[in-house]
Amino acid sequence: MSPLEAAHLDGAIMLLGTRSWASVARRHLLTACVAAIIGLGAWLLYSTWSPDMRLWKSFGVSAIGLLWFAIVAGPLARIWPRLLPIVPWRREAGIWFAAVSSVHGYLVWDGWARWDVAGLLGYQLSPETGLYLRAEPGFGLANLLGLVALALGLALAATSFDRAVAFLGVSSWKWMHTLAYAAFYLVALHVIYFAFIHYSPSPVRMTLYEPNPLRYYYIALLVTAVGTQAVAFVMTVSRRRRVGAL
User: Which is the most buried residue in 11, 159, 218, 227, by most CB within 10 A?
Assistant: First the structure.
């Protein structure tokens, strides 16, 4: 490995936040506590929902909160360099996003879809015809978006270690982890569908549900994510143009 490659590797490992095993354990424990606090807050806010829905929604709220932090930490540090110490925490946030969203997905698969792929995709079996009829097209699409985001999250979590950086190479590893942004926007579309559309009255469901108490929380996460990335992009371009002019 050349000195330049070694320097790049050292920089990438620094961004990952490599520390002693004890330090890594403490960071994961703290991140897990934050995830639990977010989930508990969601559980309390969904007090009027059925217990099974409260549970999987609480895990979902916690998951998107962790992913939001993972993608805004970098842009925030570019805007306010004093926030640079939060950047290495993206690793733990991303790993716990994958873990928490996996639990969320399992609870939906087991408690809502009942291990039925057609049901997960928004189809219902018609006793009269014996055929699966499309009942909730938006439901199936939203779940597909969530599944793709989960797959990306698991792939990113599996490569959030120093050996993965060394194996993939710094440039390839950095490119791969830009997929965290894609995962976030897929999750955002997933949750906005369920927060604003799915529980509204439809020809197949006339039951009225109370508005999702966290619907504007999801909008705030989306707006702040787009805003911080846009500001960081503009500031980066501006700085580089000034350096080029000099």
Answer: 218
Name the CA radius of gyration of the chain, rounded. 21
The whole-angstrom distance between residue 1's C-alpha and the CA centroid of its chain comes to: 34
CB–CB of 164/173 below 8 Å? yes
245 three-class SS: helix
Residue 169 in 3-state DSSP? coil
Q: Is 133 helix (H, G, I), strand (E, B) or coil?
A: strand
Q: What distance lies between CA 223 and its chain's CA centroid?
A: 15
Report whether 38 contacts 61 (CB < 8 A). Answer: yes
Q: What is the pLDDT of residues 93-152, one digit of tens each?
A: 999 999 999 999 999 999 988 899 998 988 888 888 888 888 777 899 999 999 999 999
Q: What is the dihedral of CA 118, 119, 122, 127, to 10 degrees?
A: 90
Helix (H, G, I), strand (E, B) or coil at 203: coil
Query: What is the C-alpha to C-alpha distance for residues 49 and 119, in angstroms, rounded to an integer?
Result: 21
Paired tokens of 188 = 């955002």
130 Ramachandran zone, left/alpha/beta (phi>0; psi -120 to 50): left
- Cα 225 from chain centroid (whole Å): 12
24 burial (CB, 10 Å; 0-12 / 13-18 / 19+) is middle
Among candidate residues 114, 103, 190, the one with its CA nearest the CA of residue 149: 190
β-pairing verdict for 123-125 and 132-134: antiparallel
Domain positions in the chain are 3-241
Can you give the pTM of this predicted structure? 0.87
Report the alpha-carbon distance of residue 76 to residue 163 in Å, rounded: 27
Task: For residue 205, list its beta bridge partners.
Answer: 202
Q: Locate tokens 């609480």: which residue?
A: 58
